[in-house]
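Quick one - first record:
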Amino acid sequence: MNKIRKGDEIVVIAGKDKGKRGTVLTRVDAEHVVVEGVNRAKKHVKPNPVKGVVGGIVDKDMPIHVSNISLYNPATQKADRVGFKQLEDGTKVRFFKSNGEVVGA
């Protein structure tokens, strides 16, 4: 079970984009995620008329390491650490360490 998942709102806590907020688009592997609007790079794209791709320079979101991001807590309006706990009915859930609220509830 991963602490950061697709669709989570995160805050960048280290690196050139420190302080930016965004939504996790995909998980590349166990330690890297792609976040909307974070870690952007210029990519030179060759035109391909068969696929309908126009050539030029496009911005592309590149993967960022999970150690450089943290989950955004809407209650405190800050980045927060995440833990796991089991509820009474046996389901495993993520919770914010600062206030104990369940993530996404």
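second record:
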Amino acid sequence: MIYLVNTFIIIVSFLLMEAVAWLMHRYIMHGFLWYLHKDHHIPHEHKLEKNDFFVLIFVIPSWLLMMFGVMAGCDYKLYMGIGITLYGVCYFLIHDGLIHGRIKFLSKTKNSKLLALKYGHIAHHQHSTKPDYKKENDVCYGMLWVPLKYFMMAKEKKEQKSV
């Protein structure tokens, strides 16, 4: 039974991280910490961005939860930290690998669900290269959950290619 509870804690923590990430992206990264996130929206040739600093915002609580969870005899905090870490791994693979092409084999996917995530993020960046760019015009702040229209778009494009 304890394995089910721990698995449940991991899954719930993972899923809640999407809400946390959405809220942080919308109100913090596009809010008072815009000066750190801005370089993610402006094309450049750098390997690293100031935006990469945000990884610490998620790594530190995850690490602390796992550390204190182990110190407390592997209690719920450990499994919350694991859920957050797994979300971070998925974020890296999806956002950096698939969407921004930092991992080449992921950026060539034909999977319509993964492409929907990519299209949602492309919509988020659609105004970034325009001279009159305003961060307020951005849409789609999620990473793993994007509006249904992007799934429909991916499905349509996949069907067009198979005809």
